[in-house]
Amino acid sequence: MIRVLSLLFFFMLASTAIALPGDRTQQMQISADSSHLDLKKGVYIYTGNVISTQGSSYLKGDIVTSKTDNEKQLISIIAESKHDELAHYHTTPKEGDKPLDAKASTIYYYPRTNKIIFEGHAVVTQGSNTFTGPKFIYNLVTQTIITEPLTEPDGGRSHFLLDLDSL
User: Fold this and answer.
1) From CA 42, how far away is CA 69, in angstroms rounded?
2) CB count, 10 Å around CB of 93?
3) Alpha-carbon distance 143 to 4, whole Å?
4) Which of 9, 84, 102, 144 is the least crowded, having the fewest Cβ atoms under 10 Å away?
């Protein structure tokens, strides 16, 4: 089994999304069973128990793919689960906030549109607030959440457990 450790500053959600400001300056560590890094095309694929950490942020999936443009600017990150365990993202959004914990079959991050999509059995928890459902689209700039059903068999309704005092 091949173990890969890499320091890719553009890889994880924490680098430009919701995370402590100090996380962006810390080294990133990525471990996976195997990897395929196409530096020319800007496609980085990590497979097999992929774990990436940077500061307070943590990303885990069976397959994690990141894409960059010709200027090495991040286009997307996709963390997928191929087994029973869901893809997992954990971070502390800002100093004093409660940690954010999110799991889904697939987690998509698109920095150019400032969106994170949690799709398939999504569970997002922060403090005593919990969202569960088939699909959540979170806009980082407007701080809005849109819920959508999926087509069968993963379709279903979204559920919210809100602590109004913490909003």
Assistant:
1) 6
2) 17
3) 35
4) 84
